[in-house]
Specification:
It is a single chain. The chain is mainly alpha-helical. It is 42% helix and 6% strand. The strands form two sheets. A two-stranded antiparallel ribbon has the order 1-4. Strands 2-3 form a two-stranded antiparallel ribbon. Helix 1 packs across helix 2. It starts with a helix and ends in a 6-residue tail after the last helix.
């Protein structure tokens, strides 16, 4: 069992050996959380599909554990991809922007969004967030997989983008935590109907539904 100082140092070395896609396929919130879990023996070294078989070898060398095949539950080793947005279907809901861990999607509410290909890590987190399925992954590395498809420079760039993303969200997270801790808790009242005017989640879903209805209406074929 490593002491706290040793586990922290090992965690940092393991983090340096990850491709920094922040894809969460390993089952952890980000690459740093996965590295920490490996350092203290809570996670195996074969849970990073973007790093591929080469990544497992790197992590094995750092931890002294035997090389193992990738855990199929986390996914398979595939060519690195980036995503593109089908502009004809984008409704400007901003859900993909919120899902992106490296701020690689730009746009505004009710306006078409665009992916910055040089910043996209191919994490895929934006794809399930899109209510109209207008985000498409495209191959960015030919037939290369693992670290053959993901350079150290790209990993460092992604790591910096993720750090900047966290810094940008930090004030909002602190404000939300403070608001929760200082707001008196009211008894929950169960009613038969939901008032979307006081339910942000319901209001957002209603807005998306309306945008989808407008998009479908615009795309109906014109009668001849």
């Amino acid at each position: 069992m490593l002491d706290a100082t040793s586990s922290t140092a090992l965690s940092q070395r393991l983090l340096d050996a990850l491709p920094q896609t922040q894809c969460q396929r390993c089952g952890y919130e980000d690459c740093a959380a996965y590295a920490q879990a490996m350092a203290v023996g809570e996670a195996d070294i074969n849970r990073c599909p973007p790093g591929g078989a080469q990544g497992v070898v790197r992590l094995a060398a750092l931890t002294g554990r035997p090389v193992r095949a990738l855990d199929a539950e986390c996914g398979t080793e595939e060519p690195r991809s980036v995503v593109v947005i089908d502009e004809d279907w984008c409704i400007g809901c901003t859900l993909c922007i919120k899902a992106c861990p490296v701020d690689a999607i730009v746009g505004a509410n009710k306006l078409m969004h665009t992916v910055l290909a040089e910043d996209c890590t191919g994490c895929g987190l934006c794809i399930p967030a899109c209510p109209v399925d207008c985000i498409i992954p495209v191959n960015a590395s030919g037939s290369a997989t693992g670290w053959d498809a993901w350079s150290a420079e790209q990993a460092q760039h992604a790591r910096q983008r993720y750090a900047q993303h966290q810094q940008r969200l930090a004030p909002q997270a602190r404000a939300e935590t403070s608001a929760i801790s200082t707001t008196p808790q009211k008894p929950v009242q169960h009613t038969a109907t939901t008032d979307t005017s006081v339910d942000p989640q319901a209001a957002r879903q209603a807005a998306i539904a309306q945008a989808l209805a407008r998009a479908r209406a615009m795309r109906k074929p014109t009668p001849r």
